[in-house]
Amino acid sequence: MKTKSIVFAALSLTAVTFAQKKEIKSAEKAVESGSYAQAKTEIEAVSGMMGQMDDKEKEYYYFVKGRAYLGGEDNKNADELLKAMEAFTTVNEFNGGSKYGEEAKQFKQQAMNAVISSAVDDQNAEKYGEAANKLYTLYTLTPKDTSYLYFAASNAVNGQDFTTALKYYTQLKDMGYTGIETQYTAVNKEDGKVENFNSKQQRDLFVKAGSHEDPKTVVTESRAGEIAKNIALIYVQEGENDKAVSAIQDALAENPDDDALLRSAADVYLKMDMTEEYEAAMDKVIAKDPNNPGLYFNLGVGAAKAGNNEKALGYYNKALEIDPNYSAANLNIAALMLAKDKEIIEQMNSLGNTKADNAKYETLKKERLKLYADSVPFLEKAIAGDEPNVEAVRTLYNIHIQLGNTAEADKYKAQLDALEGK
């Protein structure tokens, strides 16, 4: 009797195993026919029998499950696509992925591309929270692709979810993520677009074949500075200034000569009105790039924010020494000059009708008109670019009315109307 029981048990187990294979095979046939809903129902029905499957059957099960949730090429359901990726990832955990591993890898990439496309669509539609969730899940399924965690953090910031963003940025910082990549590019002769290649060898083959030209090797900038800055700025946003300063100083202690980090530190100090620290950080940046007018312009902005207009003017003029046509510097100099107009008007309005007051009034009037005239060259350079500042054009129009320059006023009025679509 005991022997018969063992035989019956063995026969029963064989029958169950056979049923599992049959169900998985049926789900696979449904996939092949494009009946993905049916395939998902059938493959999920087998999930309760996982404990009775051997490694070969489990490998087969997860492969079919991945294909069922991957669906057709038009599938844009991110939840299903992520389930597909998870299943394809699990394929290699059983039987070494010896039978379906390579195919699973290809299908996983297909699912990944679809999820990325979905996340990009969310980002463009300003659904930043959804984009962040999809990208973070991609990172968990492909932990070597740390850039997904970086983009998840960026979307969390855009979605004002600072708690999640801080969590992701802290993970990136702790793992030493820099985002530095070596890119191998060449220009496609057919459409003139720059294309990236997986390796130098692959790019060189296309160039040698004659389909591409102008090969370049580009090393991208480090994102470490941006990450440190964003961590600090989130702390500032949350009112935790001590943590913000600590975060940026810890980063600088590890990388004191990192240009991007120094710029990020300056941004944080400026945000926190730490003028001395801001200027010290910017001085280090300028020492590395002394002929960059934008750096002096930024110092000017910082000085103006701190209420030191004379220092700001000096920095703006330094920027113009390097590039006389630097639009933003010209515009800000004009703005600083014209800021004195309010003070002059207040003085004029405070005067009485005495002979002395009338004389003072005329003197102030001339001073005001001179101020207008002196600002004109800076404003003209400020609007000389391809995209002139509308307010600068409006200011020039009003100034020439005050100066009595009718022809010039008409010219700027026409330009203003064109910019405003009138």
TrEMBL record:
The keyword Repeat applies. Coiled coil: none annotated. Keywords: Repeat, TPR repeat. SUPFAM superfamilies: TPR-like. TPR repeats lie at residues 225-258, 293-326. Gene3D superfamilies: Tetratricopeptide repeat domain. It comes from the Bacteria. Transmembrane segments: none annotated. The keyword Repeat applies. PANTHER family: PROTEIN O-MANNOSYL-TRANSFERASE TMTC4 (PTHR44227:SF3), PTHR44227. This is Tetratricopeptide repeat protein. It comes from Leeuwenhoekiella parthenopeia. The lineage of its organism: Bacteria, Pseudomonadati, Bacteroidota, Flavobacteriia, Flavobacteriales.
